[in-house]
Specification:
Largest sheet: 4 strands, antiparallel
Distance between the termini: 46 Å
Order of helices and strands: EEEEH
Strand order of the largest sheet: 1-2-3-4
Helix content: 10-25%
Shape: globular
Low-confidence stretches: none
Structural class: alpha+beta
Mean pLDDT: 83
Radius of gyration: 13 Å
Number of strands: 4
């Protein structure tokens, strides 16, 4: 993999898979996947699956958090 590849989940860019020797480094670009930032994977597909699993566990797929900017409702503050 000569250059970084965008990782998308549910049609939204959430990270970049950057070359790291014979592996790829997960570089988070959305807070929802920040926990995976810096992790190494054997392939881009493996990194994509990790992002999908992580977001599914957080309930951020299928129009939930990703659709509303990925900001947890319980942290919202009225101004």
């Amino acid at each position: 993999m000569p250059k970084p590849i965008v990782i998308e989940v549910a049609g939204k860019a959430v990270a970049v898979a950057a070359p790291a020797g014979d592996q790829v480094r997960f570089v988070a670009v959305k807070y929802d996947v920040w926990d995976l930032d810096g992790e190494l994977y054997g392939s881009v597909a493996e990194a994509e699956r990790a992002a999908e699993r992580h977001l599914a566990a957080r309930g951020a797929i299928a129009g939930q958090a990703l659709a509303r900017g990925a900001f947890p409702a319980e942290l919202a503050v009225a101004v």
